[in-house]
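Attaching the record inline, Q. Sequence:
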Amino acid sequence: MKKLFTLVLTILTSVSLALAIHVYTSWKIMEDDYVIRFKTDKANGTMKGLEGQILFDEQNLDKSNIKVSVDVNTIATGIWLKNNHAKAKSFFDSESYPKIYFSSTHFQKSGSGYIVEGDLKIKDTTKRIQIPFSFHSNQNKGEFSGSFQINRTDYGLLKNGVGELVNIDIKLPVSQ
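Structure, as predicted:
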């Protein structure tokens, strides 16, 4: 009887571990390979310093979760003066708010891709946004690609002459 109990317990433990591994597929950001581009009517550039946790499983979107941040001090427009203006107290205020945060709240399938809904926090303002994206994987590597738009004035980023709407493109290679 004791051997049967041990066998059943071992099988249940193995099945539970297998399901846990399947449900929580953790992806690591490939630090040197990702691209975050932004573009307005009068300014464009990139940002780096992306870090955080990505749990994504195409078969179990309810268990998927993304919590990431981007370092505001990495803004690069190609023009030193624009970079400094963007980081200044009158715009991003990178000294008080050094990071931009995104935290997912919901994933859904949409056509051949997905939509992640979540909270985008810039400075002291948090807004719920949706980001359509695609995900392609090949064994233990994958890539997230998405594009979305925000209105910078919604986040207190007030500056004349740089364009109100910001288009953001993300290409994020990941590995397990």
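The CA atoms of residues 36 and 170 lie 5 Å apart. Strands lie at 26-29, 35-39, 44-47, 51-55, 65-71, 99-110, 113-122, 125-138, 141-151, 165-175.

More tomorrow.
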